[in-house]
Amino acid sequence: MLIAMAGLPGTGKSTVAGELGRKLAAPVVSVDPIEAAMWRAGVARSQPTGLAAYVVAEAVADGVLALGQTAIVDAVNAVEEARAQWRSLASRRGVPMVFIEVVCSDPAVHRRRLEGRSREIRGFPEPTWDAVERRREEFASWTHGRLVLDSVIDLSRNVATALAFLAAAP
Known about the structure:
Number of strands: 5
Number of helices: 7
CATH superfamily: P-loop containing nucleotide triphosphate hydrolases
CATH architecture: 3-Layer(aba) Sandwich
Distance between the termini: 9 Å
Strand order of the largest sheet: 2-3-1-4-5
Radius of gyration: 15 Å
CATH class: Alpha Beta
Helix content: 40-55%
């Protein structure tokens, strides 16, 4: 199965992805550390490293799926082109595709989490609240089904909901 996380920075999608990865013994392929590694390797930030990170994540997830394992992709997936990329990969590999969008319904909590977090991704600056607000405006409407989790709900309950959803997936 291919599981693609989605949601704005700071909503908790990486936390949910990590817990799902532990519960399912599935690798989590995260776009942000890939992009940071490109910068550390000397690829200029003026280059389309965000797009390149998605392409690298796709290649890594493809390798995991080729081994017959579940892969979890951790990325914002704000635009339909990114979402189509994951659906295409799942189709090519003949595996079920599930999107899990993580939102935070309380803007004050979301902002506090974003401004207080430190993921320690070397060379990767945390986004500002203003950057997240701009991203929110660019977030494309969904054209396909997904599970939506609200991170104001307890993590263990959200993970249990996600696991039940995944168990029911085709």
